[in-house]
Design a protein that fits this description.
Blueprint (H helix, E strand, L loop, with lengths): L1 H33 L6 H25 L8 H6 L1 H11 L1 H9 L7 H20 L10 H11 L4 H18 L6 H16 L5 H33 L4 E5 L12 E3 L18 E6 L1 E8 L7 E8 L1 E5 L3
Parallel strand pairs: 2-6
Antiparallel strand pairs: 1-4, 3-6, 4-5
Helix pairs in contact: 2-6, 2-10, 4-5, 4-9, 6-9, 6-10, 7-8, 8-10, 9-10
Length: 312
């Protein structure tokens, strides 16, 4: 009898401890849900659209204002090997090789697409990464946050995300490394494309002529990062930016080159490999809990990413 009583007391203590934990989570959720969002879902969509437009405008201006070699040579490709390796690492070998061997003197469209693809890839990374820097001291908190944020009700997991993102922002130095990444990419793409400027003048020309536009893009990317990472609680957002050789999924992406062609009428084969992304998309998902159960996850594509296919 005494032993049974001890077991009963132990179970009661465990239940009381669990109730305290759940009560604390409920209070946290009430605090989070009680605060009105400073941004709406529509605001996030407009931020993504604005970034896409700014990247397109900067890419078009760069290729319109600069001149490129009419003929390419293997010597030029060998001279640009370091630039090729950098561009290849970000946008993939398909686009990097194409921009390196093609002539852009008469039509710089491919160079423009490469700039767009590079910029949206780096912006997508900057918006979604837990830390803009990769110091080992951050690894433990990133691992814990990733595991914790995928469990529990939406309000609890979202609050954990916002707290962790704020902590990481406060612990990392400024300015954002995104600006340097964009500038380095622009220089390497132009060198690879055969811009008619001495190599030592490309960087200064880009900084003087387009540095202000690149700075604005970085500023707006950091605003988007803060919005989806720190300010939004009711939903989770994901930037859609398929990479080289990812499959074409019509629920998530659109063929940017197919407008007005037979492919625009739905003839793009599902699963066809993607060459690059020229405009980011936006995906939202939200955990729905019903009657105390784990519930379901509601998913919705808000903006389809614009991609160029390998078969272009």
């Amino acid at each position: 009898l005494a032993r049974a009583l001890d077991v009963s007391r132990l179970k009661q203590q465990e239940m009381e401890a669990l109730l305290k934990v759940r009560a604390a989570e409920l209070r946290d959720a009430q605090v989070s849900l009680g605060k009105p969002h400073s941004i709406s879902h529509g605001d996030v969509q407009r931020m993504v659209d604005k970034l896409n437009a700014e990247v397109y405008q900067m890419s078009a201006l760069i290729t319109d204002q600069l001149q490129f070699e009419e003929k390419r040579s293997s010597w030029h490709f060998q001279r640009s090997q370091s630039a090729y390796e950098h561009v290849n690492c970000v946008v993939g070998s398909g686009l990097a090789y194409a921009v390196a061997i093609c002539s852009h003197g008469g039509d710089p469209t491919l160079a423009q697409v490469t700039i767009q693809a590079y910029c949206v890839e780096r912006i997508s990374w900057a918006v979604q990464t837990w830390s803009l820097f990769t110091e080992p001291s951050h690894n433990a908190v990133l691992k814990t946050s990733t595991q914790r944020s995928s469990k529990g009700p939406q309000a609890i997991s979202a609050q954990w995300r916002t707290l962790t993102r704020r902590y990481m922002r406060q612990q990392t130095p400024t300015p954002s490394p995104l600006y340097a990444s964009l500038m380095n990419g622009l220089v390497d793409i132009l060198v690879l494309a055969g811009v008619l400027l001495p190599p030592n003048e490309v960087r200064s020309r880009i900084r003087i002529s387009f540095g202000e536009k690149a700075s604005a893009i970085v500023e707006h990317a950091m605003e988007l990062r803060k919005a989806v990472g720190e300010e939004m609680v009711s939903s989770e957002f994901e930037i859609l930016c398929p990479r080289y050789n990812d499959p074409f999924l019509s629920d998530l992406v659109e063929d940017a080159e197919g407008q007005g062609s037979p492919r625009a009428s739905g003839k793009v084969l599902e699963g066809e490999p993607v060459l690059c992304t020229t405009e980011m998309g936006l995906y939202r998902y939200e955990k729905k809990t019903a009657n105390g159960s784990r519930g379901t996850v509601e998913k919705k594509t808000l903006i389809k990413a614009q991609v160029v296919l390998c078969s272009m």
